[in-house]
Amino acid sequence: MAVAKQIVDREIKGSPSTERVNRRYRELLDNEPFIDSERAVLYTDYIKGHWTEPMYLRAGGALKHVLSNLTPKIWDDELLVGSMSRYFRGVQVYPEYEAWMLEGFKNVKREEERYIKGTLQERKGDRLGIYRIYPEDKEKILEVARFWEGKDWRSLSERYLKETMDDFDQVENWQKQLVFLRFMFDVPEGRLIVDYQKVIDEGLESIIERLKGKIKAIGSLNSKEDFDRYNFYKGTIMALEGVINFAENHAGEAERLAGICREQKRKEELLEIARICRKVPGKPADTFHEAMQSFWFAHVCLFIEINGRGISPGRFDQYMYRPFRNDFAKGSITEGKALELLELMRVKCTEITRAHATFTESYLGGSIYQNVTLGGVDRYGVPADNKLSKLVLQAGVNVRTWQPTISVRWRDDLSESFKMKVVDCIKAGSGYPALFNDKLATERFMSVTGANLEDARDWAPCGCVDMQICGKRMPMYAVANTNNPKIFELVLNGGVNPVTGDKLVDLKIDLNKASYEKIVGEYKRVCELIVRREEEYMNAIMLVHNDIGLVHPFMTALLDDCIEKGRHAYEGGCRYNDPAYVISTGLVNVGNSLAAIKKYVFDEKSMTMDEMKEAIKNNFEGYELLRKKLQEAPKYGNDDDYVDQIVVEMYDIWSEVSQKVINWVGKPWRPSTLSVTTQVLHGKACGASPDGRLAGDFLADGAISAFPGTDVNGPTSLIKSATKVHADKLQSTLFNMKFNPSAIEGDIGAQKFIKLNDTYFNLGGYQVQYNIVDRNMLIDAQKHPENYSDLMVRVAGFTARFIDLGPDVQRQVIERTEYEGL
Question: Any idea where the domains of the chain sit in the sequence?
Answer without folding.
Answer: 31-164+203-283, 168-191+475-710, 313-465+734-822
